[in-house]
Design goal:
By secondary structure, the protein is α+β, with helices and mostly antiparallel strands. It has helices at about 15-30, 35-45, 95-110, 125-135, and strands at about 5, 50-60, 60-75, 80-90, 115-120. The chain has a single domain, classed as 3-Layer(aba) Sandwich (Aminopeptidase), CATH 3.40.630.30. The protein contains four helices and five strands. Helix 1 (about 15-30) crosses helix 2. The relative contact order is 0.15.
Length: about 150
């Protein structure tokens, strides 16, 4: 059966929370605070100005997710969509799930005349993901990401 993509809704909160938990654990070795994570996902699902999630499904089973947030670029007079919270179940990897999710976001971005690009960040050591992103037509932007978290 083919993979289908749909926009996540509030009733998808449990699967999105679980995928985000697994993503943090697998990619960064982090254990997220489950209450903070749940509130964050609920808030993002409820307000498309905060985030938009898409889910990949096959035979009513959720295989993966992708989320994007927005950033205004005054330099380029347009919106970048930041791809985040990408997760594909381990038993569904290397089957085109990410490609289908990415293509959904790309097509949605192309439909908006003021979206000028897609961005994402990836761990330096995650060479497999970097190669996947290159095959999707993405290039390293040459930036390092700095943060102050928690903000104190």
């Amino acid at each position: 059966m083919p993979i289908s993509i749909r926009r996540a809704v509030s009733s998808d909160v449990d699967v999105v929370v679980e995928f985000n938990r697994l993503l943090a654990e697998e990619s960064e070795g982090k254990a997220l605070d489950s209450q903070v994570l749940r509130r964050g996902v609920e808030s993002g699902l409820a307000d498309p100005r905060k985030s938009v999630y898409f889910l990949a499904e096959e035979e009513d089973q959720v295989l993966g997710q992708i989320m994007f947030t927005t950033e205004w670029s005054d330099w380029r007079n347009g919106w970048f969509w930041w791809i985040q919270s990408v997760y594909v179940r381990s038993d569904a990897r290397r089957r085109g799930v990410f490609r289908a999710l990415f293509e959904q976001v790309r097509q949605a971005a192309l439909a908006e005349r003021d979206v000028i690009g897609l961005r994402l960040y990836v761990e330096r050591e995650n060479l497999v993901a970097q190669e996947t992103y290159r095959t999707m037509g993405m290039d390293a932007a040459g930036y390092l990401v700095f943060e102050r978290y928690p903000l104190q």
